[in-house]
């Protein structure tokens, strides 16, 4: 799960003065122009006005129309003098007719056709010879073959080309040598041989080269030295075992390779390797493999899922900012090298490792700049949380699928002490993931004290309406994940969401009904609700956001409900009496129970005083 989930549906604009000047007014104008088919019909005849439209605004309007399914081939002609970037990725409607109009775009600079099923060799003919085109993406277009390459060669100023996962062979790859202005070339998943790579050495301006899954060997890798400006290289899933020194190399991906040696020692004073990704790789001798690596400037290192059994080589990497050790053999007795290399560390992933509270006690105080920490699927428990207080810079904390319960048994006493209270010392914490833990309703109250929290993820059948209502006191939340919980209709409908809430994910909450979900969507149209029973596409969500600007009554327009048969019925885990009690529980009862369990401080937060209606 990505805790950095997108929180808005507006199109992305270029950072330039046109958009900055207009701000919200420009957005509203674009919204009005792309409202529906009738609004499009009103302005599409004003070609002279559109021809003078700044490219950033034209690009924004173009892609908003595309996303709302209001763009059709003949309408493309309106944009031929103002649009510079076209992103059709994944649009299966794009075919020869669409491309015929795109070929007339006078100032087209970037064209993305990745994943378009209708794209074949003959379809891309209209863009042949296009002088303005510099960026072309045909990745995942499985009908593009060597014949298509012949048409691409006629584009004289092409600087960036992606043909990964097409049907181009080594024969077609060799022909690319004539595109001498190329700076970026993606051949991922293609059968590029040593000989084919050797034929590309004429591309002396190449800076970015992707060859994952190719047939390149150690012999062919010698050709890399013929690219003097090469800074980014991806040779994952290849037979390359030894990589010679490449003076300009900044980023290297050798994931899922068998590695003998990597050299980045720089004697020419140029930038040396700063990013190394070796996920899932096998090392014949890890100390030897890293012995020729200049550790001074390395800031990003991914060792996830490797067979590394000793991490002593980390000790000299004093510039590390991002380190991924997930699913590695990292354990308490191997953690010490991190102490000397962790001063600049801002992102650390230790998920699916064997570390315990002992590792955290060693690291505490030695990672002063750590902002993102993942401890998912480790043996971390409630006793470990006290050490997190010594990491004051934490912004993102992933504790999912750990043994955390939310309480610590006080020694010599029958009382329990909350373990989650320590989290309030993390003043900068914005994202917290507690999915798959053993936290119950009575343990979640301290989370209401995390006043800066923006995203909270909970997933457990031990949580009910009580925990759900606690989150209404977190006035800065924009994303709430409350999956697989025992949330009732009354609990949902009596919930008072924070004003900042944009996404509410209640998938797996099987007690919820279509009626309750529809009612909530009508009451809070600006909140994107996720559940198996409701399917809301992006356009519907945007329309609901616009409707929320004015007062509206609850309605179900724009929402489609899927078949109940497609949802896993988890009622089998409960007795009939339990189900009856949960389903028939009145709203006031659920809320009163919630309030009775909240601490006094939380009862007064967010206007929660007295009985909630």
Secondary structure blueprint with pairings:
Layout: H1 17-22, H2 24-33, H3 37-43, H4 47-51, H5 55-67, E1 85-87, H6 96-102, E2 110-112, E3 135-137, H7 146-152, E4 160-162, H8 170-175, E5 184-186, H9 194-198, E6 208-210, H10 218-221, E7 232-234, E8 242-243, E9 251-253, E10 258-259, E11 261-262, E12 275-277, E13 282-283, H11 286-291, E14 300-302, E15 322-324, H12 337-341, E16 347-349, H13 357-363, E17 372-374, H14 385-388, E18 396-398, E19 407-409, E20 416-418, E21 431-433, E22 455-459, H15 465-470, E23 479-483, H16 489-493, E24 503-505, H17 514-523, E25 528-530, H18 538-547, H19 576-584, H20 587-597, H21 600-603
Parallel strand pairs: 1-2, 2-3, 3-4, 4-5, 5-6, 6-7, 7-9, 8-11, 9-12, 10-13, 12-14, 14-15, 15-16, 16-17, 17-18, 18-21, 21-22, 22-23, 23-24, 24-25
Antiparallel strand pairs: 19-20
Helix pairs in contact: 2-5
Describe the structure in your own words:
The protein is of the alpha/beta class and 613 residues long. Helices cover 24% and strands 12% of the residues. It has a domain at 468-613. It has a 19-stranded parallel β-sheet. It has a two-stranded parallel sheet with strand order 8-11. Helix 2 packs across helix 5.
Largest sheet: 19 strands, parallel
Quote the average pLDDT.
84
The counted number of beta strands is 25
| Estimated radius of gyration | 28 Å
Low-confidence stretches: 1-21, 541-571, 587-595, 601-613
Structural class determined from secondary elements: alpha/beta
How would you describe the shape?
flat
Helix count, DSSP H or I runs of 4 or more residues: 21
Strand content: 5-15%
